[in-house]
Amino acid sequence: MKVDVLIIGAGAAGLMCAIAAGQRGREVLVVDHANKVGKKILMSGGGRCNFTNTGATPANYLSANPHFCKSALARYTPADFIELVEKHRIAYHEKELGQLFCDESSKLIVRMLLDECAQAGVRIETSCGVEKVRKVDGGFTVMTSRGEVHAQSLVVATGGLSIPSMGATGLGYELARQFGHQILPTRAGLVPLTLSGKHQERYADLAGVALPIVQSRVGKRQFRAGMLFTHRGISGPSVLQISSYWQPGDDLRFDLLPDQDAGEWLLAQRQARPAMELKNVLSDVLPKRLAQRLCELWFESRPMRQYRDAELSQIGAQLHDWPMVASGTEGYRTAEVTLGGINTDGLSSSTMQSRYVDGLYFIGEVVDVTGWLGGYNFQWAWASGQAAGQVV
Ligand code: FDA
């Protein structure tokens, strides 16, 4: 079979690229080894797909080259994707911090992409594996499980390694290597952190305890959002966000009361409730079980009147700078994204084309561009897919 453009991977980036190329009149075939398209879109945002973030800027992405994502993000913006969503009359809402979710279901986003593909004349083959790719004169010959395909342009949109049970594979990295690209070390991102040994024993029985707002911190990077104790460690948005910046051995800290001066507050509590024990006072602003545990581990719980000013200031300071010794992450099994990937040095930032092989493109998560939690990763998938779709 001969086509103009073959796209490997019918996820967010691959489908967007297919739409853009199909609309330009290119004959496009998308193949995916999974039995359904857009599985990660379907499972995203708790089934409601956080499809973009209205505040997305290059500063919300991690990459060895922080400038690489600028061009594509500037040319296909959250407003462009919102326009598409509105054209398909999909109801959505802003949850917080610019995060847009479907009111009903992420299925509507997949249906929208499939409708656009159909209108643009794009063909999609699911349950179609890729066995071998060869560069030939005038394009590529790709051996798939459904036969040989010859394409002028080949777009690799196979995503990252997270959630292998949803179809993630390392094919994109293998193809990149085959054609001379460098792969920067990959690791799980936006992922719960694990604790071990005494650090786990201290908190294991708090599984399920949640704090609505904390500030996680690694070096100068900090995120203000919720936190949750799990059976294996810690999770919640503030932990997922910082996990992309944390590496084993890094100092990880939490401000448990980021909205107030804890020292001042404790002094005021001593004045107002001198007979009350510290653990009960802390239970007003922290989950009760956590407040008790902190008192067992760090501060002895006595009636407030027995604490000196300096002691309360010190307890306040500790609440703003609580150390957590994580041992690792839950890994690709539960990670939302894969950090690292195809080195952007080998790609054009305006078209995503390989600098080494004409007609070869890499888009989406397989590239070393990873967004924060909050709709940024889909925005990169849409934007990089569009960038390539305009030229393939
Ligand atoms: P994507 O993974 O979407 O697509 C890759 C496709 O390639 C898949 O269909 C796969 O089957 C196919 N493929 C892989 N190997 C292949 C092979 N060997 N042969 C053929 N096909 C192959 N982001 C966000 O912005 N908002 C959100 O709400 C969420 N929520 C979320 C929840 C969960 C649980 C996860 C795991 C991830 C998210 N994300 C997210 C991240 C987001 O899903 C992700 O960044 C994008 O889907 C990446 O789009 P891609 O098209 O690059 O890869």
TrEMBL record:
Gene3D superfamilies, alphabetized: FAD/NAD(P)-binding domain, HI0933 insert domain-like, Translation factors
Cofactor(s) the record lists: FAD
Residue ranges annotated for the RsdA/BaiN/AoA(So)-like Rossmann fold-like domain, each copy included: 4-390
Keywords: FAD, Flavoprotein
Span of domain RsdA/BaiN/AoA(So)-like insert: 187-337
Name of the molecule in the record: NAD(P)/FAD-dependent oxidoreductase
Species the sequence originates in: Dyella soli
